[in-house]
Predict the 3D structure of the following.
Amino acid sequence: MPYYGYGYYNYTDFLANNLYFLLLIPVLLLSIWAQFQVSGSFRRYSRTATRRRFTGAMAAEAVLRFNGVYDVPIRPCRGNLTDHYDPRDNTIYLSEGVYDAPTIAAVGVAAHEAGHAVQYAQNYAPIRVRSAIIPLTQIGSSLSFILLFIGLFLYSQSLFFIGIVLFSFTTLFQLVTLPVEFNASARAIRTIEEMQLLYEDELPGAKKVLRAAAMTYVAALLMSLLQLLRFVLIFIGRGGGRDRGGSR
């Protein structure tokens, strides 16, 4: 006979949603705190000039040279905190408040982006993995929620499962991003220390800026894991494989 089990499904959906919102509160607070830390730390140490007068561009150049990388141009770009390394044209782009700025924040941020360029030059494994899964991540972010919604609406476990699989690539991308970002910061700090780009009492400021930025990636991963957990719980609660209209 047909078995839809609406009461059972609604109850398990209720549990999944409640668990999700219970865990969402601390994760959301962490995300908000991390964003405040990034903007606050960058603003604070952007007002603190380095006594050695190294600009962001000079710091990025120093990191590249220290690691034996000589073919990566460093160019300014518009915006605030838009600094990034683009592997497509092998170029480091530094924002207006970093490129020419001789500040602690500029040195830290620029050195971090140069760390990414060094990772590519040295074939750092996690960044290669991240680059390889970008196409899957783009497909997943575009289609996963569509399939999840259709699967819920039609009670199609098959479509819902495919949506979960596609969404999991986004979570995997966030997971692989963590070692990439932490390693880039470690390379930056090591170069700053060994080449003495900052005085000893200035170094904690650069570390604070980079730690705050790293926490935003931690928060993003936790949020993605939480979403994935919610979808998995809903899938299990709805029978783990029975489409609506199946027989019992």
In short: The first strand starts at residue 74 and ends at 76.
